[in-house]
């Protein structure tokens, strides 16, 4: 099951954070919050597998997020 670990305020930020998490070996999925808004005006959920939530949170905290 996929779990939201962070809510990014645009696609660019979501991509940046997801790449950093993926670099540590964690699978990441991005999902827009609204279907009727452009990428730069939309919030994006960053999701990881439930089994990797703790590791992903540790990565985020290490990055200052």
Provide structural commentary:
The protein is of the alpha+beta class and 65 residues long. It has one domain: Alpha-Beta Plaits, CATH 3.30.70. It contains two helices and three strands. Strands 1-3-2 form a three-stranded antiparallel sheet. The longest helix has 12 residues. The mean pLDDT is 93.
**Which class do the helix and strand fractions yield?**
alpha+beta
**What's the architecture in CATH terms?**
2-Layer Sandwich
Q: Which stretches are low in confidence, meaning pLDDT under 50 for 5 or more residues running?
A: none
Distance between the termini: 23 Å
What about the largest sheet? 3 strands, antiparallel
Q: Give the strand tally.
A: 3
Average pLDDT rating: 93
Helix count equals 2
Give the percentage of residues in beta strands: 25-35%
Morphology call: globular
List keywords for this structure.
alpha+beta; three-stranded antiparallel sheet; globular; 35% helix; 65 residues
Brief synopsis:
This protein has 65 residues and is α+β, with helices and mostly antiparallel strands. The protein has one domain: Alpha-Beta Plaits, CATH 3.30.70.
Task: Give the SSE map.
Layout: E1 2-8, H1 11-22, E2 29-32, E3 44-49, H2 53-63
Antiparallel strand pairs: 1-3, 2-3
């Amino acid at each position: 099951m996929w779990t939201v670990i962070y809510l990014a305020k645009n696609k660019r930020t979501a991509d940046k954070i997801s790449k950093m998490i993926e670099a540590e070996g964690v699978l990441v999925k991005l999902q827009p919050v609204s279907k009727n808004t452009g990428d730069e005006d939309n919030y994006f959920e960053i999701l990881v597998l439930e089994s990797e939530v703790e590791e992903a949170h540790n990565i985020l905290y290490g990055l200052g997020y």
